[in-house]
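HUMAN: Mind sharing a backbone?

ASSISTANT:
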Amino acid sequence: MSIDANLALAHRAVRAFHDGDVPALLELVTEDLELFHPMTQAVWPWAGYQHGKTGFLRFLSGMGAVAEFERFEATRYLASGDEVVVFLAERLRIRATGRVVDHEYIHRATLRDGRIARLAIYEDTAPIIAAVRDLEAI
């Protein structure tokens, strides 16, 4: 696919996540999706490595159960070859503690045949862990 098509796919994925449109998200990923989120599974059992659409649904359900997104926006997109990097800013509220986390992070997507085949999320998990554990800082 072209760089423009890859960027358009990334824009659709961000919009679908923002809107909570899980069916649209599932259409944008491959059956054998590889997902990585850096949070320890001791804190979020559905983080770490997840595989396929089932793993992606487990990840999305886990996020929705634990956190409410008060803001989620892409601030920049970069594309090269079959990869797109999306810079994101979010404000999330941890449901169990009411703590709020404002932070920036990136998604790195590897595309194949017009879909996301690999999604790696890179973020500082310490503020999120502190919010989950109702601490001021770690």
Remarks:
- The mean pLDDT is 95.
- DSSP finds four helices and six strands in the chain.
